[in-house]
From TrEMBL:
Pfam families in the cross-refs: DAO, Fer2_BFD
Domain FAD dependent oxidoreductase: 4-349
Gene3D superfamilies per the UniProt record, alphabetical: BFD-like [2Fe-2S]-binding domain, D-Amino Acid Oxidase, subunit A, domain 2, FAD/NAD(P)-binding domain
Cited SUPFAM superfamilies: FAD-linked reductases, C-terminal domain, FAD/NAD(P)-binding domain
Record PANTHER family: GLYCEROL 3-PHOSPHATE OXIDASE, GLYCEROL-3-PHOSPHATE DEHYDROGENASE
Source taxonomy: Bacteria, Bacillati, Bacillota, Clostridia, Christensenellales
Species assigned in the record: Christensenella tenuis
Database matches in InterPro entries: BFD-like_2Fe2S-bd_dom, BFD-like_2Fe2S-bd_dom_sf, FAD-dep_OxRdtase, FAD/NAD-bd_sf, G3P_Oxidase/Oxidoreductase
Protein name, per record: FAD-dependent oxidoreductase
Amino acid sequence: MQYDVIIIGGGITGCAAAYEFSKYEFKTALLEKENDIACGSTKANSAIIHAGYDPEPGTLMAKYNARGNELAHRLARKLDIPFRETGSLVLAFSEEEVREVHKLYENGVANGVPVEIISGEEVLRREPNISDRVRCALWAPTGAVISPWEFAAALIETAVMNGVDCYLSSGVKRISKQDGMFEITAGGEKYRAKYIVNAAGLFADKVYEMAGGTGMAITPVRGEYFLFDKTMGGIVSTVVFQCPTKLGKGVVVAPTIHGNLYAGPDSKTAAARDDTSTHADELSYIREMAVKSVPTIDFSQNIRNFAGLRAVAGNDFIVEESNVRNFINAAGIKSPGLSSAPAIAEDLVRILENCGLTLRRKVEFRGERRVLRMNEMSLEAQDALIKENPAYGRVVCRCQTITEGEIIDILKRPVAPRSIDGIKRRCAAGMGRCQGGFCEPRIHDIMARTLGVPMKEIMQDTAGSYIVTGETKED
C-alpha cells in the first residue's frame, strides 16, 4: 500500500496530524501499534488545556501551547468534544513563590497569553476551599479541562471521514528506504511512503533508529494520580496548580470534564516505557502536596489510582525534519503536549511543504461532528428519541447515565473501539463510582452482539487483556 505520508503513532499528536493532513489532497495513513488510538501518554494525563504561561518564551513549547490553546477551543466546538473553560490558578504560599508567580506572569505576557495576578483574598472569594495560607495567585482565564481520549477520537474519526486510512494493531517492525521511498513493515503488512511523521511517543527514538536516525533518547517519566468520586467534584471549580519546580508543574487539584476531582501527578523516571504501576510512597507524596492547596479533600472518596507516562527528550519538543531526509520527528511531546497538538499539526504541514510535498486544499472537507449524549438532553428530547429507538432508553452505565444506544453508536463510528476500555474512553461508561463493576459485563455483551464476534475476542484494553477465554463446561 502506497501513501504520500505515513504517520507513526496514534496518540494526540498523531491524531491531530491526521486531522490536519486530511484537509489536503495528499494521501495519508496512520499506523498505531495498539488496538485503539490514545493508548499511551494520551490515555493517562492531567486532561488540561494549558493557557501557555509556563513554557519559556522562545521555545517550541511556548509557541505551540499558546496557539494550541486557541485551536483546542475551536476544535471542541466544531467536533463536539467535552470541554470546559475553567481557567487556572497558580498559588503562592511564600515570598519565594510570590516571585515565581510574577515570573510566570511575565512569561505569559511574553507568550501572548491572557494572565493577571490576583490577591489571596480574591483567590478565596472565588475558591473558598483553597488553603487560607495563599498569598496571591496567577489567574489564566483560557485554561480548560477536556476529555483527552475523546479529543483524540474526534480528530482521527474526522480524518478518516476525510480520506485518511487508520491501521490499528500495526506496530512498526522495520523501516527501509529505497529510491527515495520509505518501506515500512507493520502489523504483517508493508506500506510505502515518501514522507514519515514520527509521532510514536515513548517509542519515538526507537522508530527513528529504525529509519537510520541517531541522537534522540526518550526518557519515560511517570506521574501518578488520585481520582475522586463526584461527591468531591465541586470542591474547586478551576484548575489549581502549585508553583512549578524543576520537576514540572507540581501537584494539581482539578475538576474533570465528567464531574469528578483528581489530584496529581508527581514526577519520577520510570523503570520501563510501559511502567504504569502505582506506588504507596508516591501517592503519599501527592496526598501531602494536594492538601497544601485544598485542605478539605476527603481521600476516603478516592475511587481509583492510576499512572501515566510522559515522553521526555530534553527541555523542549522536537518538531523538525530529521537528519534522515523526509523523516520528520514530532517527539518528546511532554506537557503541554495535549494542549499543543493541534498547533504542532499545523507546523507539520509547513515542514512537509518545505520538504517538497505539494499542498492542495480539498474543495470539500467535512469539518463538523456531533455526538448524541443522552445525559445532556432534555426529558422531552430523550422521550422522543426512545420512542424512535428503544435502545436509548436502556441505561447501561448508571454512574454516568450511558445507554445501550450510545454504545452501539460508538461501535459504528469510523474508528470503532475493540475493547471495553475503548468504549470507556469515548463516553465515560465505567468511569463512575463503581468503576465498571455494574456496566462492564453488559458492555461486553453489547460489543460482541454489535460487532458480531465471540465474547472472548473482546479485550479489556490492549492486546492480551482477556476477560474470558471460553465457555464453561466446553467439551
